[in-house]
Amino acid sequence: MHNFDFVKPSSVADAVRALSAQGAQALSGGQTLLPTMKQRLAAPAVLVSLTGIADTKGVRLDKGALSVGGATAHAVVAKEARKHYPALADLAGGIGDPAVRSRGTIGGSLANNDPSACYPAAVLASGATILTDRRSIAADDFFQGMFTTALHDGEIITGVVFPIPEKAAYVKFNQPASRFALTGVFVAKYGSGVRVAVTGASANGVFRWTEAERALSASFTPAAIAGLSLPSDGMIADLHGSAAYRANLARVLTGRGVASAH
Amino acid sequence: MPKDGGIGASTVRREDIRFLTGKGRYTADINLRGQAYACFLRSEVAHGRINRIDTAEARAMPGVLAVMTGADFAAMGGNPAGWHIPSRNGEAMKEPKRPVLAHGKVRHVGDAYAVVVAETLEQARDAAGAVVADITELPAVVDMAQAVANPDLRVHDEIANNVCFDWGWIEDNRAAVDAAFKAAPHVTTLELVNNRLVPNAMEPRASIGDYDPGTGDYKLYTTSQNPHLSRLLIAAFVMGIPENKLTVIAPDVGGGFGSKIYHYGEEAAVLAASKALNRPVKWVADRSESFLSDAHGRDHVTRIELATDLEGNFLALRTETLANVGAYLSNFSTATPTFLHGTLMAGPYRTPLVYVNVKAVFTNTAPVDAYRGAGRPEATFSIERVVDKMCRELKLDPVAVRRKNLIQPDQYPYTTPVGLVYDTGNYPATLDKLIQIADFSGFEARRAESARRGKLRGLGLSTWIEACGIAPSNLVGVLGARVGLYDAATVRVNATGNISVMTGAHSHGQGHETVFAQIVSDKLGIPASSIEIVHGDTSKIPFGMGSYGSRSLAVGGSAMVKAVDKIIAKGKKIAAHMLEAAEDDIVFEDGKFSVTGTDKAKTFGEIAFSAYVPHNYPLESLEPGLEETAFYDPANFTYPAGAYACEVEVDAETGRVEIASFACADDFGNVMNPMIVNGQVHGGVAQGIGQALLEAAAYDDNGQLLTGSYMDYAMPRADDLPMFTVDHSCNTPCTHNPLGVKGCGEAGAIGSPPAVVNAVIDALHRGGHTRVTHIDMPLTPSRVWSAIQN
């Protein structure tokens, strides 16, 4: 690790100002950034910690939706979202290990948009809204490809608002080594229809499987998608699974998600 | 029943208190006054010509004390190969020099070519970034078949076809084996890969070189499984310094699994740097360096054929194997695929004719050497997979076929067609025990229950045998070893009656401090708490050969018993003097020396005290002191064996395999500490399941390691494993060592991979996927699913 300066502002405005400095980098839970810095693959001049800002932390119910602060740790979501949005709590409780869940945050995960991360699936399948220091961004506009989002330089995720579905489930199939999602599927049933988001599978990052959404909106049963299949074009192929394998997983896990939705 | 703390007791491991409370003293915990820090520069390409290494800028950086490159070590010797394996045509094996630091060429990603030493580790790292290496990348040789076939691709310019040796075992039997195949009613053929593994000891390698300019003595603290062997290699072969001017200390070592048997260039580099700078130089590998530069394990590609009659009686077996040795020969890399592999190809069976061909192949990858089991897992996997395939082809029961081909209890000593003499065993007994403890009869009900949950259940079986207690010097000498493989122990009874035992074996997690104390306690009748086991420091211990090949107890423990016997003999002399009796009339029992038929006796403590306060000794016939050293060189290997069963559930939709249960029936001979033996089996099976389902060191075509971190290299974790059922009640004591022990450290890793794979294939067949005859390890979900699809 190289030397760096460290600041921990207590307001969003101060954080935005600090991030405008040359070589500044936002630090939330640091579960991706810190290992990268330790390996000397990143060397920011200034780390701006986002975890000292009280009003970007916590889980609360707000006008029928679940609002999660951007700097809320996975472990907190796993506990506090349980009563309102159990599938979201399941997802948060299955990220990494206890140490990761105690440090890692939802805002950090979304801003990084790792193609194998879990949270993007929940956010996209829920049609959630990402709140930043300067605007609101719909989930459908937020994710723009592997490690790419709609965020501008220095823009901070302050919260995420999740509409609460009637039923939902997240089914994750672990990559055996990292235990990131080799493929993960979030299925959410709303009065307006069903949304299905797939993470881990596509080289473009999280995506909606609209064909399955149509079928499941008509009939929310595993049988409704039994005859569907996802094309393997554009799927990730690596040591841990071919493109066809990931396409298969997405289909199988969607069915299991429908069966286990609660 | 064993005495508390004696032989056979499940004594709690005394070393765990310090390990579990953070009080272990590992090499990285040692900080010497004035120490500097080393950072190695490692090749980023698999193969390249070093044109120039510009160190000027790095030398000028803050805190930098020295920058050394391969040129600085060019005059030193190479790190040698420990076994000579001649080719079938009688040619000597190819032994390219393995320098301390790469010089002229780099030959694998991670090959160290320079070292920076600075006041702090961060300064050393910063300066390493300023070293400019002009390296022309050359085509990499990664795939063994290509390495052998393409004469234009060479890891070492002087070695065409990259073949180290082409070995036949036993060459004289080849024609008879071939003839048996021609005449055989049935031949089963299987091509398989024994996947390459990264050892992943919990503690990464670390070394501190400490040269004393006052005395000219060198001291090396290092993560070694055998400090005396490292000293010999460094002093006599690499650095050319007198052995008695080098002390090697391997303090607490956090696992080795083979990877810390060997001498590595970093050790010589820190010693040389320490001498150049007149201050200690410390290096601790980070995990990425471990992945790139520890000797890897396995990596065989094998074609195995089994000739049988139509009833499944084995008639002949033959194999052709390409064994990857990587870019350089690590110390035992030539022995592992040959004398630890070819000699085991009879397994526990009466196969009358066996022929093994192994070509060792250089590639632009990290060196490959012995890893837990070392050659024997490869042999066992090949045999047990082809036997299973044969049973399926001939529609025979895999239990019955194995049972009828096993060597029978009345056939010992049994001479195999591959050059070993098994002294004792009872393979049908462990197989029967396995069938009982694994509840074979309840399998069908369990399978039906799994099916109700949509899962395919399978049952896999394997038998295994190994030659371990790696020893007899005369035998290994005939087989090409350039070292002896005895071991040694010194038992020092102190004046106050407590005991220091110095052993040549090395504990890096095995629990020697507990078990060796149990043995000495049992033999001398004094409490284990009065016995200290000293290991790992060449200035304290007798010249022993360290720990690997499940040899510590069978060889090191036997040396200890021999030394204890000498102590008792000396104690009798002293007692005879003190009790004014004839030496022949003295008996030793329960810690007391007494005159037979009388109540005259001296306690062990009284004898010890007298030995060091010899006020009235007849010095012409009785020496003071009570300290004895023994060297033990056994008559044969030991041959533990057993049978393993694995049940799996396969999710056919995703290809995911879950281990439902795993049972082991082993014969380890006499068991000294059942709890520790259970732990060894648990650990070995965990590693075997890791190999079967999870682990693979994968290089791409350019020789880049794709699995260079835990993000991509899957280690087995607790939730990947079932509770194990372990039995070692069917024991036949070894016939030729004083404890009747065999060795248990590698068993689990040897016997388990074929049981797992056989279980998965069984599950798929029972589920109707009958075209799947083999899946190469690791059986990842993706591979299993693909096999089902095809």
Gist of the model:
The complex is a heterodimer of chains A (262) and B (790). With 262 residues, chain A is α+β, with helices and mostly antiparallel strands.
User: Mind summarizing the main beta sheet of chain A?
Assistant: 5 strands, antiparallel
Distance between the termini of chain A: 45 Å
Helix content of chain B: 25-40%
* CATH architecture annotation of the largest domain in chain B: 2-Layer Sandwich
In the CATH classification, which architecture of the largest domain in chain A applies? Answer: 2-Layer Sandwich
Number of strands of chain A: 12
The low-confidence runs of chain B, each spanning 5 or more residues with pLDDT under 50, are none
Shape of chain A: globular
Structural class determined from secondary elements of chain A: alpha+beta
**Structural class of the helices, strands and pairings of chain B?**
alpha+beta
In CATH, the homologous superfamily of the largest domain in chain B goes by the name Aldehyde oxidase/xanthine dehydrogenase, molybdopterin binding domain
- Oligomeric nature of the chains: heterodimer
CATH fold name of the largest domain in chain A: Uridine Diphospho-n-acetylenolpyruvylglucosamine Reductase, domain 3
- Strand residues, percent of chain B: 15-25%
Descriptive report:
- The complex is a heterodimer of chains A (262) and B (790).
- Chain A is of the alpha+beta class.
- Chain A has three domains: 5-49, Uridine Diphospho-n-acetylenolpyruvylglucosamine Reductase, domain 2; 54-163, Uridine Diphospho-n-acetylenolpyruvylglucosamine Reductase, domain 3 (2-Layer Sandwich), CATH 3.30.465.10; 167-260, Enolase-like, domain 1 (2-Layer Sandwich), CATH 3.30.390.
- Helices cover 32% and strands 23% of the residues of chain A.
- In chain A, strands 4-5-8-6-7 form a five-stranded antiparallel β-sheet. In chain A, strands 9-10-11-12 form a four-stranded antiparallel β-sheet, sandwiched between helices. In chain A, strands 1-3-2 form a three-stranded parallel β-sheet, covered by helices on one side.
- In chain A, helix 3 packs antiparallel against helix 4 (86-93).
- The mean pLDDT of chain A is 97.
- By secondary structure, chain B is α+β, with helices and mostly antiparallel strands.
- Chain B folds into three domains: 15-22 and 486-632, 2-Layer Sandwich (Aldehyde Oxidoreductase, domain 4); 31-138 and 202-255 and 260-293, Aldehyde Oxidoreductase, domain 3; 384-466 and 639-789, Aldehyde oxidase/xanthine dehydrogenase, molybdopterin binding domain (Aldehyde Oxidoreductase, domain 4, 2-Layer Sandwich).
- Helix content of chain B is 28%, strand content 23%.
- The interface between A and B is medium-sized, with 16 and 25 residues.
